[in-house]
């Protein structure tokens, strides 16, 4: 008998146009990026299955259009996000400044208990190209008490780490609901051996996350 | 009916909601879906029947009412007993369903207020049914087994297509499903309340915490209820992102098994197989010499008995005290150097099979199941046949079959038949598709197979045995011969027999049967195996045990078991998950659009422009798209825009053209004149997928249509020669504009004067001046003339000029009687003096237009004979033009049944207001 359950967390990505949101998503979900990407005009999403701390979780990541003209529309998608990735391009100072603006939208439109992380993408840049220092990013993140990552979708650096960190703090925030749900699944669905083993491994690794 | 997702915190599982109506009463039925898509009645299980009465509350969750467009709609349903949250797919189907429920609630309140309380007796019957089945669900497995045949054997199935209910064509999809409903009629003699009996079926955890829920069979009476129910709504798949992963787990398993060799390591485990026909004796002997005669303790034991109990009770009721007795006997005699745990025991009459494993290995044993097959009397009874246990040990599948085949020397073909019957009928359920014996990696077949020695007499056999010539006897062994000619046990192997025949001895001794039958000794009791990684170490009889007329047999095997290398397993598992995620993402709905930006230039009043967008389904699944509303907007686009079609279904590879039509009419002209830009962004939503934003922009050429009287009287030249900014300014603040006024304002807008003047000169005697539409082409010519002040050149037919006048008045930004005076005018419409008072209060330019047009009407009425006009007709026409309800008050707040009357009353008031001024001379 098929199991009818699913634990889903919804993450959203915001940030200026061209900072690499879509590339980050492709790298994370499909481990692949295309070099000829066109601007996202709309809202797209991808699904990724992860085992975090022994829990099988499905992550739905929504990628939003970054262009200013669509801001009034994209804002309405914030409402259902449990976690939001704020992305800027370390080669583009403007995109870093605009993080303030995105934070404002989040506080206006996202749920109060939404979890955030700040990501400086394109860390594969040469030093000469870099416009926003790591310290600046770190300072901003510290101010708002959110985790900070420098990533490169192109070189596949820190992408998984960033998303998993966000997923994990979202899970922590919603721990009660998830635990209740896990219990429900354990009681009412026959555990298959796969989950059993993965769960065990999760514990063996001292709660370290297993990326799949 | 709507397919929805039941939300329990973070778990979502699909449910089918159906509004069932029986005469006056309505009830909401909630079904669990055992399969998606739902095709026949077996796929759904009634979970709850909620009568729609006083305590029934159904609301869209306020907390998420601002949820993103296109997302599922959270709906909470509350009654005195339940409180559940559903997510229903976004779209018109859901809102229709929702409104139907609301209507049902209203209906209930109305009925009760009229003193006709609804009984909902029919719903109670369903509810009883559900309760009944949920209670039975707590029965033990045994009760369940017993009940199952009783309920499936008695009912005969009635298939009936319900009479077509009144519904939209859209709903046909669901009607089809309903036509498939098989409703079982059950004899009222069966269990449960009269006429009701739950047909049982195991299904997945239901929402109210009970582990099993059962399909509910209806009576004939209930069938009529379902048939007459007007069921509305349509089946709709949910966004794949929130689809339950049940299917997915199966796929993961399949992929993992395909790549098994990548993450498994073969490790040998020792298996002990034993079989003994105990001839109905009680367990009065130590079984140690049989079960624990080796130095090393085996990892797994599979011990089979036959003729455990020869009593009538055992045969008729399958109930035997011997089971417990022999289990204890075996348990005591297991190898002393290890601790064992009982994995499974299965018994059919006298055949019993027990599987033990070392304690520490028990956690690696999963998916244990047992089955029995009777092949005895009438081919069904349990005096002969087989019992089996299957299990998964690490990653290797095992099955143990203990059988007792037909007796008597000459019946070897019957034995072959019994073997074949067991093979085909022994099916292990609960693992997706039922598993056959042959679908296991390691198969052990033990038991009293009853094959004898042919062609040799008892004395000859005994003679050979005395001379220790077992090989020669074996040549005459029936099983050996049948296997050689492939009549039975194909694919099985049997080790070399170098133990004495195990049958038939005088009980308590080692001496051959001394009864008058003088049966020939035979190897009745055998152990066979099948599987690649099995190595037989020992195959032997045990002479030391004497209570039975058979001797026990045992065999030791080493089986190479696929154990999981956890590191490698993890790696492969991750890989499989990654591939599936990728696949799933690829299978999300996907379209490509020819264009994302559309520019319409020089849009003019009432001049339609079109552009088209091609939507190609570039994905691998059918796609449904829909333009969805933006936050706080009640239509997906601005009033001057239309998308055709606004919702469509596309098969993979197919293409659909969507037309964007821009048309500015009197509804939208005034705000565009006042500076609103011709700009919009549409959200094209793929059902279960992404959203696209499509930008529409353009420039509007202002028109005197849709302008305000205040602005028009101040424009002396054509509107298009006025700088846009000035125009916007005039429109945005019509009352205060001294600075921008170059000259004195006209009394009335020149356009009105021009048109009326033309009609006055040429049309007073024309019949049906306002009733006939002009030619469309002429209408546009007139437009151009009006814009350019070319009144001398008004060229079209007199009728189109008349139409232009009406259109012009109707399009005025604010009607001739300003909105604030609308209600006053209606209120005093039957009193000319009061009417005059109100009129004296309205702004001068408005009053001038009013006076001018009513005077023109009076003029026209002088030629009643020729113009065929009547005071009342004219009054009605002008009343509608002059008096427009303020924006937002267009819809009357009255009950639907009185709406028509209210509309007519208002129309009469409007007409009578104007009528006063048409029939009476009026001057300030």
Automatic annotation (TrEMBL), chain A:
It comes from Saccoglossus kowalevskii. Keywords: GTP-binding, Lipoprotein, Nucleotide-binding, Prenylation. PROSITE patterns: RAB (PS51419), RAS (PS51421), RHO (PS51420). Belongs to the small GTPase superfamily. Rab family. Pfam families: Ras. Gene3D superfamilies: P-loop containing nucleotide triphosphate hydrolases (3.40.50.300). The keyword Nucleotide-binding applies. The keyword ATP-binding does not apply. The gene is LOC102810004. PANTHER family: LD44762P. This is Ras-related protein Rab-15-like. SUPFAM superfamilies: P-loop containing nucleoside triphosphate hydrolases (SSF52540).
